[in-house]
Structures are given as C-alpha cells and as structure tokens.
C-alpha cells in the first residue's frame, strides 16, 4: 500500500531561476525502509522538505505536479497537520531544539499529545536511556557536542506517533559506535512498529548494513536510480553519481572482481566467496609505520583544562607533538575532549595547567589573534562561524580584517571558491546554501588566510564523495607544501586513508598515539573509545587474508591491483 506518491513533481525555490526538483515520480510503500542518496545539491534534502512540510511553509517556492502523503496533499495542509504523518530529524540539530533542557526537548511531543506527567517522565527517561543520554537530561541542548545533539534528536523522534519517520543525515555528527547505535535504533523502530523509514545519508556503507529495501539515487534534481542496493552495487552507478561505495566493495572492484547482483554484496559476510581470489594476490609491502622526523611545530606538555573551577578536568595530562608537513587525525567518542583540546590550542579556551609550544616558543600568553596568524580553526558547526550574509563576503572577511587590498582579495577568494566547489555560488546569499555547503564555506574562509597549521573539525561530515575527494586532495597538496593539518574526525575511512598518525582521546586523556592501522586493529582501543573497525579490516578477516596490513596498505596507496589469473 503506497504511503507517499510523487507524480510529475517539480519545485522551484523563490528567487531561483531553475527548478531544484524535476519530474519526480516516486512511490514509497507503507512499511518500507528507504535510503535516499545523492551528491551535495542533488535535491535530496529538498525532496525531504516537500515530504515533511518545510516546503512550502518554511521554504517558499513554486510547486507543479502532485504529491500525496497517505490521504493528504501536504502543501495544501498546515505543517502541524503534516507532523501527524511525518516525524523528522533535521540535519541541522540547532534548528530543531525547542526545550530549555534535554528532558524538556524530548518531552515536547508527549506534551503536545497531552500525555500524563508521570507517564511522560518515564517515557522521556526510556528514550534518553536508549541513546545513552540520560545523564544529560537537565543539560541545555546548545551546550552539547554535535554528536550528543544528534542523539537527543534521536530520542525525540522515538516519541513520535507519525507513520513516516524521516532522518536527514542522522549519522553526520556521530562517532562510529554512536552511528552504529543510531542505525540499530532506527532498525529496531522499523522492526517493532513497521513504520515507514526514509533515511537521507552520505554514509552509504553504514546504512546498508541494516537491510535497506530500496536505494534512491538523486542527481541534478532528478531521480536517476530507484533499485535494490545489490543491483546498484553490482555496477558503477553509485560511484558515477558522485557517491562513495562501501569501502570493501571499492577494494574488491579495484582488484578486477566482477560483482553480480546475485552475490548480494550489500551484506559483507557474502564476500567469503572471494576468499581464494583475495589470497592469491600479492599486495604492496611498503612500510606504513615510518616515523616523521620533521621539525616539531606544536607541542603540548602536561596540559589540563576544565570549564568551571568546581568541575572535573575536561582534558587532562595531554602530551603530544605535531610535526611539520604531517596530517594528524584526532579520534575518539563524542564528548571525549577532541574539540576542547583544539580550542585550547587556538586560545579560544585558556588551559589551567601545562604548557603549549610553537616550535621552541611557549605560547601560553599569546592572544587569539597572535595564534590565528599561525593556526586556522574550522569548527564542526558552520553556524558557529558564519558572520556575513553573502558567500564572497564571508570568505573575504578575514583578509579584509588584515587590510588586504580588494584586488588581491578577489583573486584569492575566487581561487578558494574553486578549490572548495563553491565557485558557481559565489554571488549567492549564505542562507541559500545547504548545511554541507555551509561547511565548505567555513573551510574556504580559513584556507584563504593561508595559515601554517590548519585544524579541521569534522571537515567531511555531510559532504558527498566527489567533494570529499576533491577537498582531501587539496589537503594533501597543503601537506606537500609542508603545512601541518589536524583533523578531528569520526570518519575512520578518512583517518585510515589520509592520516600519517593518530591520537585517540577517551574521557579527556590520550589513550593511544600510533598509526591509524595499528589503532583500528586493536579491539580493546576500538571498544573503549567508541571507534569502529573499517570494512577493509572486516573483509580481511572474513576472507582470511594472510597479511591484512599489506592488503590495507595497498588500498591506501591506491596500488590495489593484481593478476587474478595468478
């Protein structure tokens, strides 16, 4: 039985010349679990906004064609009426919170439904327990980390009676283990209630682990594929539309193995059939444990920080060095202290104990401005950085503060716009950008300042694969020019492919400092710090690959090829 039906549907935002959605014909059946994917700007979030009523009630524009949700035409109803049918978790969590505390926010739906107070309190506690946020029930939502906010949003949607649950980038700010738990919760909701689940997500691999019925691929405002995951993974359709295939699928294809839809490759356990082939290939034996002997740019020595005098230390006994021309990834669970440590480095937060050095100089007393001359910091949430209304002005803001002449500013801004995939939007207002595009904008505003050290807090969250690869290629170029990069990330694939070294934080302390491979091969560290082994490691285990380190190194070095007839 169909619950959502688009027929010859078009949508054009007010003030934009062309349609954002074009000729959408789509039926979603009651009880289905559907993944909608596509590159940034493909129209997938716009499609979601048509379903949940944000279009046309929050985002104005012209609608042509037909859209029906069960027995209503949403754009002819009220957004309150639509919310009875569709519950939503937004990609931008800050736009979703309505309560002054976490508990009040989760209780919002229960209050609207006039649930008795004792029953409501028990339901709120149960929802927060399910997402491991019960200890934050009295906390202000805006004081939480990005991943913690996401989990609170997950708890809120558990209170919804809506038949359709729409998740817009539910994994974008979550650490790997929390992302896995989020998908488990979504899967449990589906299995127990038979609600219709719609997931919009770039992290295809993490979603496909949970038996998706259909995958809908969008590009340039149109639906270009609507099929089972196994059918789409058997060809090159996903990668040709700017998306990333699961890492293990990418590796298998690079070895020249022909995947068929009957192989049901969406379940990694089915790769066992390739065991003999994978074990007959000689892999790259290059040493990936080399130690960087370059000059030390940054050194932390016994650094401690806490937010309030009577609170425990958020980070404690931090000791590490950043070398010139290296990429250092900082890993760990939500709330482990990763972002706090970087804010201490930039001077946004003032540490209480210990010393920080730039080269040989103690910078404890340096101002934020003095540190900004050497260190650029791109925050996790773009809304916390953007100050200007126009895209060009936002990127030019720092250069203008340093009194650069306008001719040079224009040249530098245009160059960075191209690097970050925003050149075509150079004359747009910031408000017209998607959340992922805003992230690219904030990265561009720091890169244009040409700092010696660049800190990137979750730089690829919410980014499609093409922009991810283009951006990380640029980061590699910066590394080659001897700039040093610190990447705070939950993306184990990014850390594995691009980092020279990694720090793992847990409960405010450095748990481990090593190569990413060695860290992600250590089950004790993975469990303690809420990380997740990559699917490459899983593939190596399933197929019994004799030297998994060489196999993974071959993938990282893009030298994953072999004679399959050997």
From TrEMBL:
A single GO molecular function term of this UniProt record: ATP binding
Listed SUPFAM superfamilies: P-loop containing nucleoside triphosphate hydrolases (SSF52540)
A Pfam short name: DUF3744
Keyword entries, A-Z: ATP-binding, Cell membrane, Membrane, Nucleotide-binding, Repeat, Translocase, Transport
InterPro entries tied to this protein: AAA+_ATPase (IPR003593), ABC_Co_transporter (IPR022216), ABC_transporter-like_ATP-bd (IPR003439), ABC_transporter-like_CS (IPR017871), ABC_transpr_CbiO/EcfA_su (IPR015856), ECF_ABC_transporter_ATP-bd (IPR050095), P-loop_NTPase (IPR027417)
Key word Methyltransferase present: no
Coiled-coil features, chain-numbered ranges: none
CDD domains: ABC_cobalt_CbiO_domain1
Domain ABC transporter: 4-245, 298-532
PROSITE patterns according to UniProt: ABC_TRANSPORTER_1 (PS00211), ABC_TRANSPORTER_2 (PS50893)
GO CC, any one term: ATP-binding cassette (ABC) transporter complex
Location of this chain's protein in the cell: Cell membrane
Keyword presence, Cell inner membrane: no
UniProt topology in membrane: Peripheral membrane protein
PANTHER family noted in UniProt: ABC TRANSPORTER ATP-BINDING PROTEIN BC_2655-RELATED, HEAVY METAL TRANSPORTER
Family of this protein: Belongs to the ABC transporter superfamily.
Function: Probably part of an ABC transporter complex. Responsible for energy coupling to the transport system.
Protein name: Energy-coupling factor transport system ATP-binding protein
Organism for this UniProt entry: Oceanotoga teriensis
């Amino acid at each position: 039985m169909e619950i959502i039906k688009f027929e010859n549907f078009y949508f054009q935002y007010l003030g934009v010349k062309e349609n954002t959605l074009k000729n959408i014909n789509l039926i979603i059946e009651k009880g289905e679990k559907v993944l909608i994917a596509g590159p940034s700007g493909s129209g997938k979030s716009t499609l979601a906004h048509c379903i949940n009523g944000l279009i046309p009630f929050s985002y104005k524009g012209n609608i042509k064609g037909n859209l029906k949700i069960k027995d209503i035409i949403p754009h002819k109803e009220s957004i309150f009426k639509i919310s009875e049918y569709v519950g939503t978790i937004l990609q931008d969590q800050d736009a979703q919170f309505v309560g002054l505390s976490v508990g009040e926010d989760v209780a919002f739906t229960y209050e609207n439904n006039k649930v008795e107070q004792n029953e409501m309190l028990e339901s709120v506690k149960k929802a927060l327990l399910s997402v491991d946020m019960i200890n934050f029930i009295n906390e202000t939502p805006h004081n939480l980390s990005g991943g913690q906010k996401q989990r609170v949003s997950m708890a809120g949607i558990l209170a919804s009676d809506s038949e359709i649950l729409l998740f817009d980038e539910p994994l974008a700010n979550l650490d790997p283990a929390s992302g896995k738990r989020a998908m488990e919760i979504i899967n449990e909701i589906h299995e127990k209630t038979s609600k219709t689940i719609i997931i919009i997500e770039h992290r295809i691999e993490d979603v496909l682990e949970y038996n998706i019925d259909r995958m809908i691929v969008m590009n340039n405002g149109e639906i270009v594929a609507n099929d089972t995951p196994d059918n789409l993974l058997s060809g090159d359709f996903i990668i040709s539309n700017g998306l990333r295939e699961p890492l293990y699928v990418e590796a298998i294809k690079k070895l020249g193995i022909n995947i068929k839809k009957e192989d049901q490759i969406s379940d990694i356990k089915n790769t066992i059939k390739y065991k003999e082939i994978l074990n007959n290939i000689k892999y790259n034996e290059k040493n990936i444990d080399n130690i960087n002997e370059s000059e030390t740019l940054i050194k932390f020595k016994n650094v401690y920080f806490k937010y309030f005098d009577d609170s425990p230390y958020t980070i404690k006994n931090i000791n590490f060095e950043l070398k010139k021309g290296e990429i250092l990834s900082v890993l760990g669970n939500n709330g482990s202290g990763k972002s706090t440590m970087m804010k201490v480095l930039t001077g946004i937060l003032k540490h209480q104990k210990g010393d920080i050095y730039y080269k040989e100089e103690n910078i404890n007393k340096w101002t934020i401005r003095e540190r900004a001359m050497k260190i650029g910091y791109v925050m996790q949430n773009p809304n916390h950085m953007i100050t200007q209304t126009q895209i060009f002005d936002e990127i030019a803001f720092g250069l203008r503060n340093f009194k650069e002449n306008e001719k040079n500013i224009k040249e530098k801004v245009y160059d960075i716009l191209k690097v970050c995939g925003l050149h075509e939007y150079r004359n747009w207002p910031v408000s017209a950008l998607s959340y992922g595009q805003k992230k690219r904008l904030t990265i561009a505003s720091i890169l244009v300042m040409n700092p010696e050290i660049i800190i990137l807090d979750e730089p690829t969250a919410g980014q499609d694969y093409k922009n991810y690869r283009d951006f990380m290629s640029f980061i590699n170029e910066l590394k080659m020019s001897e700039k040093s990069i610190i990447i705070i990330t939950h993306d184990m694939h990014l850390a594995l492919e691009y980092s020279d070294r990694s720090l793992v934080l847990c409960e405010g302390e450095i748990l481990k400092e090593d190569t990413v491979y060695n860290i992600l091969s250590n089950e004790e560290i993975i469990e303690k710090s809420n990380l997740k082994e990559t699917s490459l490691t899983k593939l190596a285990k399933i197929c019994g690959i004799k030297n998994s380190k060489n196999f993974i190194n071959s993938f990282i070095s893009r030298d994953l090829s072999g004679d399959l007839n050997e």
